[in-house]
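Q: My labmate handed me this sequence with no annotations at all. I'd like to see what the chain might look like in three dimensions before we decide whether it's worth expressing. Could you predict it?
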Amino acid sequence: MGKDGGPRFLHKEIFQRVNFLLQAANLVLKADPNNVELCRHYIATMRLVAEKHVIRLHPHIKRSFCKKCNVVLLPGHTSMVRSRSKSEPHTVVTCKLCGTMKRFMWRKSHQLWIDKQEAWCDYNQQDKKSIKLK
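A: Here is what I predict for the chain of 134 residues:
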């Protein structure tokens, strides 16, 4: 809790740095699709900063770049997007540079854990529980 009574936002500068590096990588690749090496450097640095400070990247951020070659996946430039529906309907995103494939489900009931209500916690309830435990 901060002085004003509200919960503190931990690692604010780290999240800002990660956000800046992701935006810079997107901007560099959109401005010049041939400038892949600078984009790779930005994404690799972003992942290194997040790993060093032990913060979790949002799943939507993780889906936006290739985990193997560290390039932002822009449809038509660095990735190819196809829809498949053999056994389960899903989208296949293939990196054009390294060939890595990602599959994303289409089911109506499919929802990322972070998007579910039970994934979010209430700081006030946590503080009350920690006070009772002491």
